[in-house]
Each structure stands twice: as structure tokens, then as C-alpha cells.
Write a structure and sequence with these properties.
31% helix; alpha/beta
Length: 316
């Protein structure tokens, strides 16, 4: 009897021990706290931002035209642009900037209108001669959907400028290329401009420059010159005559609407969120991005959007 009682007690204690272990197993473990702020790194160029996706960053917020060209035209299928209404941002209008108080902007606008209406003979970066209008130039770089229609301007390309005007002093067009956050002066922002495969420059703004010179029949060995301009030097470069006009991926507001005169808008642009193609579903909502590592270009519209509206959508 005593043995049976001892066996019964052991059985009861064993059952209690088992239930205790089960209870411990079912006990909820503390969950790691969700991040409450963004992990971010700023770089100096759009290509550097997309390169960061191969170096540990999860999400790049970049220039949409550059991202589209980089992924589709240059064959980077390992990356993708997030789509859908939540990831679609407002279009902005691209202009060219000229010295305030000059009339150079008017004659460049007149040339853009003429290029819209009629083809001009220009030389591509590979030295082939072609006859392109503005739509052809945009299409050459996959930007047809970004091209704006230009209304007929008051100043016509074949109207003689007033004597002594800035335009009549030109015997060549000195073009500066600049881009937001470009601290080095090394421009690599296709489809707008980059150093070409055959030397010189390539991109939409390079061909637009050549077309402007064709419209006005600028002659001579060098009817145009190209200059890389650091973003912080943009105003000085125009005011001291280093360049006559600035082309880039900027808008009036981003470059400084009070500091320049502007051509009419001729292209649109926007911002894109780029991820590795294998991460597209992982980051399909803003809520899923709380632990992500972000990258963008310092002092750009994209960085402002990332730190403002996008940050608010992720963290509330």
C-alpha cells in the first residue's frame, strides 16, 4: 500500500511538471520593439544611390527618369520600381535656367518650340548625323511620355534680338550641366546627361544643346561648350558668365526661382522608390518598411520627400 501511495505521488508530481513545461512553452516571448525612426544614408549621386542597394541598403528613393533608364535601358533587371497609387508621386516640370535679366531664356524657349515643330540636323555621341525633332530626342532616351507640349512663344527664333542684348553677344552657347546634390561636378544622370561612350557628352540635354545651335546656325569649330557645374556653384557660374544656360533635372523651385530666368517647361520628372526585384513583395506597403535601410541623394527633392511625406507614411 505504501508503495502504491509513493507511486501515486510520483505520478501526480510528474503530471504537474509536464503541465508546467507546457505552460512555459506556450508563454509568449517578448517581441522586439519596432523601429520608431528611419535608418538613412545620403549619397552624392543617383547612380551611387542605386549602387547602395547591392551594398546593404534596402530601399532607394531617387529621380524617377534616372531609375527608369537605369533599370530598363541599361539592363538592371535585378532592381524594380515600386508601383501603385501609394508609390506614385506628383510630376514636376523641368526647365533650363539663365542669367536673371538677360533674354537668353526667351531665345532658348523659341528654339525649343522650333525643335518641336521641325527636325534639326545634329550629331549623336557616336558621330552619326541624324535629323531629330524634340520628340525624336525624347524618344531616343525613352522619355516620350515625359515630353511637354510647348506653346508658340512671343519671341520667335528668326526674330532679330535687340542690338546689345545678351543673345547677340553669343558666338557659341556655353552650357552648364548640374544636378541636385552634385557636390563633385561629376555629372552622371542619364537620360539627362552623362559622359558618353565615345567621349564628350550624351543625354537629352546634350542633344537639345546641339539642336539649339542648329536652329540658330551657330557656326565655327565649337558652336557650343559643355561644363560640369557643382550644385552649390550654379548661381555663380551663370552670373560670372562661365555658362550661358544651366540644364539638369531641376525645377524652378529646386534650383532657386528668385535667382534665375527660366525657359518654358519642356519635360516632366518625378520621384521613384526602387528596391531589389526579390524584395518587391516584402516592401509592398509603407508599414513593411519600418526596419528598412534607406538611401537617397543629399539635398535633393527625393531626400526631402523621403524625410517628409514618406517618413510620415511609414512611422505615422
Amino acid at each position: 500500500m505504501k508503495k502504491l501511495f509513493t507511486l501515486f505521488i510520483a505520478l501526480v508530481l510528474g503530471l504537474i511538471s509536464c503541465f508546467s513545461l507546457v505552460g512555459c512553452g506556450e508563454k509568449e516571448q517578448p517581441q522586439p520593439e519596432e523601429p520608431t525612426s528611419m535608418t538613412y544614408n545620403g549619397v552624392l549621386s543617383w547612380s551611387a544611390a542605386l549602387d547602395e542597394l547591392a551594398q546593404g541598403a534596402d530601399i532607394a528613393v531617387v529621380d524617377a527618369s534616372f531609375a527608369n533608364y537605369y533599370i530598363n535601358a541599361l539592363g538592371h533587371s535585378e532592381l524594380t520600381i515600386l508601383t501603385g497609387k501609394d508609390f506614385t508621386f506628383a510630376d514636376e516640370q523641368i526647365v533650363a535656367a539663365c542669367k536673371k535679366g538677360s533674354n537668353i531664356d526667351e531665345y532658348i524657349t523659341a528654339a525649343l518650340y522650333e525643335m518641336q515643330q521641325n527636325k534639326q540636323k545634329i550629331e549623336l555621341n557616336n558621330k552619326d548625323e541624324v535629323e531629330y525633332n524634340l520628340a525624336d530626342i525624347a524618344g531616343h532616351f525613352g522619355m516620350s511620355s515625359r515630353l511637354l507640349t510647348i506653346s508658340e512663344p512671343t519671341v520667335k527664333f528668326d526674330t532679330a534680338p535687340e542690338s546689345g542684348s545678351d543673345w547677340t553677344k553669343l558666338n557659341q552657347l556655353k552650357v552648364g550641366f548640374t544636378a541636385e546634390g552634385n557636390a563633385t561636378g561629376n555629372i552622371q544622370i542619364l537620360p539627362f546627361v552623362e559622359v558618353g561612350h565615345y567621349g564628350g557628352y550624351d543625354g537629352i540635354h546634350s542633344l537639345i544643346t546641339k539642336s539649339i545651335c542648329s536652329v540658330y546656325k551657330f557656326s565655327g569649330t565649337n558652336p557650343y561648350t559643355f561644363e560640369n557645374v557643382k550644385w552649390d556653384d550654379r548661381k555663380t557660374a551663370i552670373e560670372d558668365g562661365t555658362v550661358d544656360v544651366l540644364f539638369g533635372n531641376f525645377t524652378k523651385d529646386s534650383i532657386g526661382s528668385d535667382d534665375f530666368d527660366f525657359t518654358v517647361p519642356f519635360l516632366t520628372n518625378s520621384t521613384a522608390i526602387v528596391v531589389k526585384a526579390t524584395d518587391a513583395e516584402k516592401f509592398s506597403t509603407y508599414a513593411s518598411m519600418k526596419s528598412a535601410k534607406f538611401v537617397s541623394v543629399t539635398d535633393s527633392k527625393a531626400e526631402t520627400l523621403l524625410k517628409g511625406d514618406i517618413n510620415s507614411k511609414i512611422f505615422g
